[in-house]
Design goal:
This protein is an alpha+beta fold. It contains five helices and five strands, in the order αααααβββββ. Helix content is 26%, strand content 12%. The protein has a three-stranded antiparallel beta sheet, with no helix packed on it.
Length: 146
């Protein structure tokens, strides 16, 4: 019963896609550190410390795992449902060009009243990515800590 937006609403409006700068990303990512690592950054130990000193004490909100997940998302451009659907077999880490393949994504199961509902799958299920273009190979670059 919902109408899709008119494609003309999104075309030609002159608004370009904006990406985070490295500094903006560092501010967000460093807020996702455990307390001890956050405190070390705020005290100036490590890159980004001067930016973090402006944050309110206690502004951290995550774990090291959260931060690594954020770095993978931003570094690869994968959607949440694609990242969390990755399996070991999707990774090729040896060889001249390490990469990952996006082959599946988490999908929401429509309500039982929908003709598209999948019984016995729960609220979510693994399925193919949104479009054929979404099935892709993503080259992984080396991570340089500093």
């Amino acid at each position: 019963g919902h109408r899709l937006p008119d494609r003309r609403d999104n075309d030609g409006d002159g608004v370009e896609i904006q990406f985070l700068t490295e500094t903006e990303f560092a501010l967000i990512a460093d807020c996702m550190l455990p307390r001890a690592m956050y405190d070390a950054r705020v005290s100036g130990a490590g890159p980004g410390g001067r930016y973090l000193s402006a944050l309110a004490k206690g502004a951290y909100a995550g774990t090291l795992t959260d931060r690594m997940l954020l770095e993978v998302a931003v570094g690869t451009g994968l959607r949440w449902g694609e990242i969390t659907a990755l399996q070991v077999r999707d990774l090729t880490l040896d060889g001249p060009e390490p990469c990952l393949r996006v082959r599946r994504a988490w999908k929401r199961n429509p309500p039982p009243t929908s003709e598209f509902h999948r019984p016995d799958t729960g609220p979510s299920y693994l399925g193919p990515p949104k479009t054929r273009k979404s099935r892709r190979r993503v080259t992984l670059a080396a991570v340089h800590s500093g």
